[in-house]
């Protein structure tokens, strides 16, 4: 089974590209959605996070208090590294389980949509890596519209992510998303054609 890793920096438009791959009949595994599902109690992942960071990361109902956890790792590289080590391990295990299921079902190709594809090591499970890129100013505009955060926080998020040059040097394909959604379809179709995936 061909596994297409889909990644890129925040605001580049990866979700739109993911939906286009899905429109051609490819199953899409969304790493963020998997992570959120793994945190629903009772949860081995949440239990491990709580054991390390303390019960202050939990809401009264036992679910994760994301802002509280964010405050504990903000500007603390070693704590963020620990958070990622725990979460990536659990997400990667579930991703591999789902990929095995798809492979056993005879699925010819699937997409792994993962913002932290490289950081988690999930890139090693992919045959092809596609990164979605966009100009920094456009990404900033999209983040502000989408997430409702301050411009300062948005800029901080952008600066904390890997550079365009990293994505270009570590990807098999680059999708440029500086225009409208219609400009993305030919790029997705070309990748599917070159990788031998027969669209539905």
Looking at the overall shape, the CATH architecture of the largest domain is 3-Layer(aba) Sandwich
Write the H/E string, N to C: EHEHHHHEHEHHHEH
Q: What is the molecular shape? A: globular
- The count of helical stretches stands at 10
Helix content: 40-55%
Quick one: CATH superfamily of the largest domain? P-loop containing nucleotide triphosphate hydrolases
Count of β-strands:
5
Give me the CATH fold name of the largest domain.
Rossmann fold
Class by SSE composition = alpha/beta
Multimeric state: single chain
Terminal Cα span: 16 Å
Rg measurement, Å: 18 Å
Give the structure's gist in a few sentences.
The chain is an alpha/beta fold. It has 10 helices and 5 strands, in the order βαβααααβαβαααβα.
Describe the protein.
This protein has 200 residues and is an alpha/beta fold. It folds into two domains: 1-26 and 109-192, Rossmann fold; 28-106, P-loop containing nucleotide triphosphate hydrolases (Rossmann fold), CATH 3.40.50. The chain is built from ten helices and five strands, in the order E-H-E-H-H-H-H-E-H-E-H-H-H-E-H. It has helices spanning 14-23, 31-38, 44-53, 66-73, 77-104, 117-120, 136-147, 151-160, 164-169, 184-194, and strands at 2-7, 28-30, 109-113, 128-133, 173-176. The protein has a five-stranded parallel beta sheet, with helices on both faces. Helix 2 crosses helix 5. The longest helix is centred in the middle third of the chain and has 28 residues, at 77-104. The radius of gyration is 18 Å and the shape is globular. The two termini are 16 Å apart. The mean pLDDT is 93.
């Amino acid at each position: 089974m061909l596994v297409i890793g889909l990644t890129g920096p925040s605001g580049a438009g990866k979700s739109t590209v993911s939906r286009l791959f899905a429109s051609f009949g490819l199953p899409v595994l969304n790493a963020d959605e998997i992570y959120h599902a793994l945190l629903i109690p009772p949860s081995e992942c949440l239990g491990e996070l709580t054991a390390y960071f303390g019960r202050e990361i939990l809401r009264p109902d036992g679910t994760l208090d994301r802002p509280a956890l964010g405050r504990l790792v903000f500007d603390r590289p070693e704590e963020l590294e620990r958070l990622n080590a725990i979460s990536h391990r659990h997400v990667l295990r579930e991703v591999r389980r789902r990929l095995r299921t798809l492979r056993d079902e005879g699925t010819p190709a699937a997409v792994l949509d993962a913002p932290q594809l490289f950081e988690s090591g999930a890139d090693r499970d992919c045959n092809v890596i596609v990164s979605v890129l966009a100009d920094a100013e456009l990404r900033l505009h999209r983040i502000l519209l989408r997430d409702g955060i301050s411009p300062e926080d948005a800029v901080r998020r952008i600066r904390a992510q890997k550079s365009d040059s990293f994505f270009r040097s570590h990807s098999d394909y680059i999708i440029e998303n500086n225009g409208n959604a219609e400009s993305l379809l030919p790029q997705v179709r070309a990748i599917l054609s070159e990788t031998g995936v027969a669209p539905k």
